[in-house]
Amino acid sequence: xxxxxxxxxxxxxLALLYMLIFGGSVAVLLGFIYWATVGVLSxxxxxxxxxxxxxxxxxxxxxxxxxxxxxxxxxxxxxPGGRTVYLLTDPLQRPLVGNLDSWPPAxxxxxxxxxxxxVDRGDPDERPYLARAKRFVLQGGLNLLVGREVRxxxxxxxxIVNAMxxxxxxxxxxxxxxxxxxxxxxxxxxxxxxxxxRDIMSGxxxxxxxxxxxxxxxDQLAENLNAMLDRIQGLxxxxxxxxxxxxxxxxxxxxxxxxxxxxxxxxDLSAAERTGRIDAAVAEADTLLSVFNALLRITQIxxxxxxxxxxxxxxxAVLHDVAELYEPLAETKGLTFSSxxxxxxxxxxxxxxxxxxxxxxxxxxxxxxxxxxxVTLHAAGNTITVSDSGPGVPEDAREDVFRRFHRLEESRNxxxxxxxxxxxxxxAQLHDGDVRLEENRxxxxxxxxxx
Length: 451
Hints:
The chain is of the alpha+beta class.
């Protein structure tokens, strides 16, 4: 079953394709080697025969039939092994001189070449071997056949052909084995990812895809998937946290709203009292609506749904507007408010969201700084810093305060919904930035980067 699945895998098919390409490349290489060896040797044999024929033809013209017959006889005596083939016949192909008994029965090709078998009389088994010769017609109708035995050439040919067959077979076998090994390795990595995915779908959200430690594409995929799973788990925990806090933080205002509405049934209420209680109920409902609107706005920002409002923004102008808005509020509370807006860069952003984020940080600083303290708005480049001299936030809680509805115990009775910093972080991330809280000694420093 596993073998069948392996053979059906895309990795094995890819390895098979590479195997065929590599096998074809080896076949082309071996074919070139065959041509460069056997082909060259064949050409040398043919050139030797052609030169021999040309020399004998010239000797015939000078010395006649008896002269050429003497030359052929002398050459045969000097070659007892019969490596060279000679046969001179009359016009009726009756042998006159040579080391062949008769004219070979094979038909010549268009160029006059003949391939035929000879028997080595010195071999006890009289095994035949191949010879190659060419016919030449002399003046007077005499037929001259000159050739050479090509046993060594045939041995070389067979040796190279066998080497080609074995080479291609071994190459394909090794490539197939390598493809199977590679496919199994890849299949194990993919099975690990699939198993982890199944465990996560079964509810084990803490599972993560193991990395091989090689830094290859699978490790990069595992890192990206694990980062995605961390993000999903964080969002789910945030959703669970939001649900718990909604149930906790909104229960009180809803109870107050219900109580105010029930009080309206009191028949002893005067018109002014009834109107006051109605206004209080409406204000309570508006507070609840503002909380839900803030939640929807944060969700929309985190989903990237506000990028259509991006445009060139004069960041300095936005910060001056925030300072102008909150400076009177700080003075009313008895705080010293100062702004230092240096050489800030213009950015592409949603102006309203940037204004809201800086306003939230400034509002928090003013809200939690006691009378006589100070609040400072500072900006340079693409970094905005809001500093205060208030009580600050404990270091171990500085990340928690960015969660929705999270509020420190000492500030639970202060006005607000606990969504301000969540909105600031969402805006920062939408603008490819970040927000962090740092120690100000005394107080807190909120650092926002955008763009």
